[in-house]
Specification:
Layout: E1 5-8, E2 15-24, H1 27-30, E3 43-50, E4 53-62, E5 72-80, H2 82-94, E6 98-99, H3 104-111, H4 117-128, H5 132-140, H6 147-173, H7 179-208, E7 210-216, H8 222-230, E8 248-254, E9 257-263, H9 273-288, E10 291-297, H10 305-311, E11 318-323, H11 350-361, H12 376-393, H13 401-419, H14 425-432
Helix pairs in contact: 4-5, 6-7, 6-13, 7-12, 12-13
Length: 439
């Protein structure tokens, strides 16, 4: 029997309507002193009275198991006064209905078989999405399990049964496991897994976002490019060197990529106290970002060795971009020949778009990543699935059937962990820690 829980499903801000959810067993009895529940899945106007408060509320009742949580669930639509909502929640507590933990409604939905762990993670990502692409990616992972997971599980089930039979009854019944036939039957899974690895690697960046720092000498075009990518004038642009003295940060979606941009002070030796402090802050930014765009005016012919020395510790994530390409004769605005040339003031950024997508998405488009595994937890399990399959294919003919059975059981266990059928508390705690109270 599940204890009743409650939580606001809408933020506690002044608004037209506030929604409070209640879920658990015997809600009709628990709520009887407060309200008579309406018929199932019907909205009814009810007058609530408690401790001197009188409220007119719209009440909906979803009896188990046909509800979000799989339990009896009641929604109260109150007037959106935060104080009124808090007093209402306090009264529910006096009726024996405790305040829910973050994500507890969705956790009960998972435990009651109303959704998989993958759907739960997709819901969390949808709630936290800040760009159009992140919304689309999260929505694509809602609903049924990805087809490749269901198909792979269906493919290995009969082989698990044969391997178990060979282990338990092989000698008595003359049951043998044909390892070569197994490998032939599962050979295409290698390709499937590797495709999903590539998609997951790209989807990670679409989900988590890409942190990009713009660095270079003063007047290298950093603030102009920063504004162009942000889609608004966030940084002051002048011809005076050292205009940007602090680190500016903005989140944006550009060319389908969720970016967190950092515009930094021009890297140079300076006697200006404020500018020097800004330069000193650049290193902390460079340590945390995923990509450093080293901006060099296309007309520059001399290598700036002091700047290169500053960037040497981060060379694995540095991409040189030649800016102001429209002012340099003979340079084409492209990424061909290993030289990435742009003109932010003219809006010519196709080469940068090509360079970023190639670096983080490979040859995949954002749409090709829809439905891919994207969270760190999912990607780790996918890597382990790939390793388990490779270990299976490296088994030699004539090996003990116990080894084959162990490999197949290992794969099955990884799928169970991926979908949430293996409900390890530590994994669930990690997933639900990112939820709000009413979800």
């Amino acid at each position: 029997m599940s204890e009743a829980i409650c939580a606001p499903a809408t933020p506690l801000f002044p608004s037209a309507v506030a929604v409070v959810r209640v879920s658990g067993d015997r809600l009709a009895d628990l709520l009887a002193p407060l309200v008579k529940l309406p018929p199932a899945r019907n909205a009814a106007l009810r007058y609530l009275s408690w401790n001197g408060y009188r409220e007119q509320a719209l009440v909906l009742h979803f009896p188990a198991p046909a509800s979000y949580t799989g339990e009896d669930l009641v929604e109260f639509q109150l007037h959106g006064n935060p104080l009124l909502v808090r007093r209402f929640l306090e009264h529910l507590g006096r009726l024996g209905i405790r305040l829910a933990e973050p994500g507890e409604f969705t956790r009960r939905a998972l435990l009651n078989g109303k959704q998989s762990l993958l759907e739960t993670e997709a819901l969390r990502d949808l709630i936290g999405a800040t760009t159009d692409q992140q919304v689309c990616q999260a929505q694509a992972r809602q609903g049924a399990l990805p087809a490749w997971i269901s198909e792979t599980k269906a493919r290995i089930v009969p082989w698990m049964a044969r391997a178990e039979a060979a282990v338990d009854y092989g000698e008595e019944e003359g049951i043998h496991l044909d390892l070569d036939s197994l490998k032939q039957d599962l050979i295409n899974l290698r390709q499937v897994f590797h495709v999903e690895q590539r998609r997951a690697g790209a989807a990670r960046w679409l989900r988590d976002g890409i942190k990009v720092a713009l660095v270079g000498r003063p007047n290298a075009g950093k603030s102009t490019l920063f504004n162009a990518l942000a889609g608004e004038d966030r940084a002051i642009v002048t011809e005076i060197p050292g205009t940007t003295r602090d680190v500016l940060e903005v989140r944006t979606e550009w060319a389908g990529l969720p970016l967190t941009l950092f515009d930094t002070a021009g890297l140079r030796e300076t006697t200006d106290t404020v500018e020097r402090l800004g330069v000193e802050r650049v290193r902390a930014v460079l340590e945390q970002v995923d990509l450093i765009l080293h901006l060099v005016p296309a007309s520059d012919t001399v290598v700036d060795l002091p700047i290169l020395a500053r960037l040497t510790p981060f060379e694995g994530k540095v991409l040189e971009v030649r800016t102001m390409g429209d002012l340099a004769a003979g340079l084409r605005l492209s990424a061909s020949g290993g030289e990435l040339v742009v003109s932010a003031s003219k809006g010519d950024l196709a080469a940068l778009e090509e360079g970023l997508k190639s670096r983080f998405l490979g040859d995949l488009s954002p749409d090709a990543c829809l439905g891919a595994l994207a969270t760190a937890r999912q990607r780790v399990l996918l890597e382990e699935l790939v390793l388990q399959l490779e270990l299976l294919f490296h088994l030699e003919t004539g090996c003990p059937p116990e080894l084959v059975a162990s490999m197949l059981q290992g794969m099955w266990g990884l799928f169970a962990a991926l979908t949430g059928e293996d409900r390890a508390e530590s994994a669930l705690d990690q997933v639900f820690s990112g939820f709000c109270l009413g979800k």
